[in-house]
Every structure is written in structure tokens, then in C-alpha cells.
């Protein structure tokens, strides 16, 4: 059986112009993906359904993602209440230390995103402990590396190695994805895995960060979004299921 790979962070801008959606989806499938998560910033219902229907022809799974950029902890909590049941994946951009620690321990948050070199410094061993408690993953995003050059890229690699080392030591889940804003910024799964090797991650671990780990997060959240979900381990079953 072929391994299933997922790019957990693809911006909705990748699917512009809309008349190219078929071609773009075909390219994503050709790269070797079974699924992608599309990040939306505003009303997404019409374009999401259009993409999802077209993707079914290619056996490509499409999931909804939102990236929160709250100004403070209070705004983060408000936004989480508003969006948790609308998206399969919720990411929080950790540009502030307090927001990072709050998001790490909040079970409504799936992924901690560090959009800048400076933001990476917010991830420490204490943050890692909170992420274990909140079952929150950290994200290694390829686009961050593509957007910098020279000494700044060298510092970015060093800082990313630091947080990857902490995450491995503490057992924090990690995912690797593209963060692509255009189809030209997307890369094949093995190329994403190569980013893991650059950060001194074991080869097998890097592969899991583009496959089994993000898929397990998706599976858990799809279950929680079901109308039959009550709480972890408790679901409503109908009579036929009960007697099966």
C-alpha cells in the first residue's frame, strides 16, 4: 500500500485564478499528495465546496484550515470559540510569548506556527511541556526558509534545529508543510522531508511529519466535528449501529 502524504498548510491563494483550479489540483496530485489543508482568511464556503468537488475526481482529500493571528490572549480565546467547529485544523501564529504559551496548552488549537525567526524564540522547554498537555503540534514551514537569504537563513536553520531538538526530546508532535501561497511554492512530499533532514531530524521521523502525524490530527478533528461526538471516547450511535 502506498503511503499517504498531506500538505497541511496550503494558502487559498494557490487556487487563483479560479478557472485554473482543475489544473492546480492535478499538479498537487502529481506531486504525490493524498490530501491538503487549505488555509482561509475569510468567507470560504463557495470556493471550498468548488475545490472539494473537483478534487474528488482525483481522490484528493481537502480539509479546511484557519491561521489565527490574535493581538492578545483574550482575542485568541474569543476567536477559538468562534471557529473551532468550522475548521478541521486551527493554527495559531505565535508572534507573542503569552499567546504562544496559551495556545500550546489549549486543546482547541492543533498547530503552533512560528512565522518569523523572532517568533521561533517563543518556543522553549516550558512551552513544549504545555504542548504535551494540550496535545498541540508545532509546525515547520518550508516557505519561511524560502523567504530569507544569507545570514538570516543560517540563523533560521539554527533556531529551527533548536526547537526541533526540544520537540523530539519532550515528545511534542511535529508536522512539516509548505505554507505555499502559489502553486510554484509547493514541493513534493520527499522534498518537505528533506527540510527535516536539514534540521537534523531522523529520516523516519521526518517522513512521519508529512504523513502519519498530520493525518492523525485530521482524523481526530473530523471525529470531533461529527454531530455524534459528545466528548473523547463518547459518541452517539443509532439503533442499527448499536445492534450491529
Can you walk me through this structure?
The chain is α/β, with parallel strands linked by helices and 244 residues long. The chain has one domain (6-243): TIM Barrel. It is 48% helix and 17% strand. Strands 1-2-3-4-5-6-7 form a 7-stranded parallel beta sheet. Strands 8-9 form a two-stranded antiparallel sheet. Strand 1, helix 1 (21-31) and strand 2 form a beta-alpha-beta unit. Helix 4 (97-105) runs parallel beside helix 6 (125-134).
- Rg from alpha-carbon coordinates: 18 Å
Tell me the strand percentage band.
15-25%
Instruction: Please count the helical segments.
Output: 12
Q: What would the average pLDDT be, to the nearest integer? A: 91
Q: What is the rounded distance between the termini?
A: 29 Å
Helix content: 40-55%
Return the domain count.
Answer: 1
* CATH architecture heading: Alpha-Beta Barrel
How are helices and strands ordered from N to C?
EHEHEHEHEHHEHHEHHHEEH
Largest sheet: 7 strands, parallel
CATH topology: TIM Barrel
Poorly predicted ranges = 228-232, 239-244
Strand order of the largest sheet: 1-2-3-4-5-6-7
Amino acid at each position: 500500500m502506498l503511503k499517504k502524504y498531506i500538505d497541511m498548510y496550503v494558502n487559498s491563494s494557490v487556487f487563483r485564478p479560479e478557472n485554473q483550479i482543475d489544473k492546480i489540483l492535478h499538479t498537487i496530485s502529481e506531486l504525490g499528495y493524498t490530501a491538503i489543508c487549505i488555509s482561509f482568511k475569510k468567507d470560504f464556503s463557495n470556493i471550498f465546496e468548488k475545490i472539494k468537488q473537483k478534487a474528488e475526481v482525483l481522490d484528493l482529500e481537502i480539509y479546511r484550515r484557519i491561521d489565527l493571528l490574535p493581538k492578545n490572549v483574550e482575542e485568541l480565546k474569543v476567536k477559538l470559540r468562534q471557529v473551532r467547529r468550522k475548521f478541521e485544523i486551527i493554527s495559531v501564529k505565535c508572534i507573542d510569548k503569552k499567546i504562544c504559551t496559551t495556545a500550546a496548552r489549549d486543546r482547541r488549537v492543533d498547530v503552533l506556527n512560528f512565522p518569523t525567526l523572532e517568533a521561533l524564540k517563543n518556543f522553549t522547554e516550558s512551552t513544549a511541556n504545555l504542548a504535551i498537555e494540550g496535545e498541540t503540534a508545532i509546525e515547520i514551514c518550508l516557505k519561511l526558509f524560502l523567504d530569507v537569504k544569507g545570514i538570516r537563513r543560517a540563523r533560521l536553520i539554527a533556531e529551527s534545529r533548536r526547537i526541533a531538538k526540544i520537540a523530539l526530546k519532550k515528545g511534542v508532535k511535529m508536522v512539516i508543510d509548505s505554507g505555499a501561497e502559489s502553486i510554484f511554492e509547493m514541493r513534493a512530499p520527499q522534498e518537505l522531508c528533506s527540510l527535516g533532514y536539514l534540521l537534523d531530524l531522523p529520516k523516519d521521523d521526518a517522513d512521519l511529519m508529512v504523513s502519519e502525524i498530520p493525518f492523525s490530527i485530521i482524523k481526530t478533528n473530523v471525529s470531533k466535528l461529527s454531530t455524534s461526538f459528545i466528548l473523547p471516547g463518547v459518541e452517539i450511535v443509532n439503533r442499527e449501529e448499536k445492534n450491529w
